[in-house]
Each structure stands twice: as structure tokens, then as C-alpha cells.
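ESCALATION

Customer reports they have been waiting on this structure for their group meeting. Please prioritize. Original submission:
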Amino acid sequence: MATEGLTRRAAWRMAGAAALACTASGSAMASEQDSLQAAARLTATALARELDRQWARLRALAVEVERGQAAQPVAELRRMMNTAQQAAPHTVWIGVANARDGKVIAASSGVLEGADVSARPWFQAGLQRHFVGDVHGAQLLVTALRRDPRDEPLRLIDFTTPIRNAAGQVVGVLGSHVDWRWVTAIIANAPIPPGAQVALLSQQGAVLFGPEGQWLSVSPRPPLSLVHQAPEAPSLGWRVVGLPASTMRGRG
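Update from on-call: job pushed to the front of the queue and completed.
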């Protein structure tokens, strides 16, 4: 009987230890999920804030261009473009093109002035609405900026807006191309909790930054946060996913 009592007490102790271990494991998992959710939320907030600032800069410049467009010579427009670029060095190029023929009237450092950009998606969209274009490889600027072919390929995001005359007619398109490394630097400097990292997804679900792999198809999906921009700003529809730091790294 004594042996049976000892055996029963040992079983109880083992069961209690297992329950404690299970509770601890559950708490650790919940803590990790909270950390990953925080990583996604904090990064999304940082991206939204900086994207809105970039958009506000472009709109302020558009207002300045519209205010004096009737009498502004090319040199003055170029000065305005240069000043705007200097205020935001991550802007690789900024310029205004004629709505009639798509020719660049004035641009930062005179780059691409006289060039026909009528076929470029940013120009076509900018004729119709405020527009922001997702990351893509540079085309015309690769040659115009005379970059060293050994350098990292230039990747850009676009911000464009129509330029209107006093009658409200679209007479030009103001566009800026922003270095993708600006975006990755915002992500790198976000206050992400220890033990976490993030991935940036496009509106279509493609991985723009961060690890690729099986986590894309796991269920349930990792914590996700939308990049909520200001109502007046065109949105990229980006989403940020929080992931354990141990997840294999990928796109950057």
C-alpha cells in the first residue's frame, strides 16, 4: 500500500510538472506572438509616417509650381527641383513634364530635360490622379545618371501628381523617383523588439523585403499590420509581417 501511495504521488508530481511546462510553453508562445505583432505594427507606422512626409513634400512643390507657372522660366523651375531634392536626398530625381507631349521641362540637376517620358507609367498615371508606384528597376535614369555598372542596381518608387492651371486643366506632371534603399533604411531603423524581424509585402502579396520561404504558406499566418497612410495620400497597399529573427533572410 505504501508503495502504491508513493507511486500515486509521483504520478501527481509528474502531471503537475507537465501542466506547468505546458502553461510556460503557452505563455512563451503568446509572448513571442506579441513581440512579432509589435514588430509589424511599429514598422508599418514608421513606413506610413515617412511615406506621408514624402508625399507632402511633393504636394507642396506642386502648389509652388502651380502658383507661378505662367511666368516661371526653366531656370527657376530647375532651381525649385534642386531645392526639393536637396531637402530629401533620398530623392534620386524630381522633375516636371509637359502634359501635351510628355517632354521634361525642368528637372533636378537638369537630368532628362527634353527627354520624352510620355510612355512611362508614372507620367501616364500622373495625368489622371495622384499616384505612387511600387518598387521597380530604373530605366531612363540608369544612363542619364551615368552610374557605375558595378554599382548595386538602382531600384525606385515613384510619386507623381498632376500640375493644373488656373482653370483646373492638367498642363503638366510633377514626378519624383525615390531610392528604394530609403525604404529599407526605414525598416532597419524601426524599433523592432529583440528576437523579431519583419517582411514587407506588396499589395499583391509579393515579398519586397525580408525572408522568403515556407512562412508564406503556413497556417495561421504570422502577425500582419497594414501600412496605413493619410487619407489624402495615394497608398501602396503595403503590409508588414512580424517574423522570428531565426527565419532565413531573403530580399532586401
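Sent to customer with the following note: Strands lie at 91-98, 104-107, 131-137, 155-164, 170-179, 196-201, 207-209, 224-226, 239-244.
Escalation resolved.
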